[in-house]
Amino acid sequence: QVQLVESGGGLVQAGGSLRLSCAASGSISSINVMGWYRQAPGKQRELVASITRGGRTNYADSVKGRFTISRDNAKNTVYLQMNSLKPEDTAVYYCNADGFQTIATIQHFFSSWGQGTQVTVSS
To answer: Rounded to an integer, what distance in angstroms lies between the CA atom of residue 54 and that of residue 123?
Structure first.
């Protein structure tokens, strides 16, 4: 099993910044795409940002210019730098990773989720 462990959430005032981290561990051969999703109360989970192994990024329109996703392939870790936070950014943020793991010499596709980390932005 590939496990994702997130950190960095918390409470911040509007206009402030937070940095989320997510580290993947397990019998990982390679990770193709890593991403951050969020889910606010009463709403569906939505993509915030994603990044490919080669560094190609994709952002939700609502966070463009404020959030930056990056990754360290050697550490199987993805980051989300969140600046100019707004109350509407309040949500549980989840990390996701898609890739391949090796089990008994055979490669298997995986798609794993972290446990989520709460981000609360006060007005």
So the answer is: 37
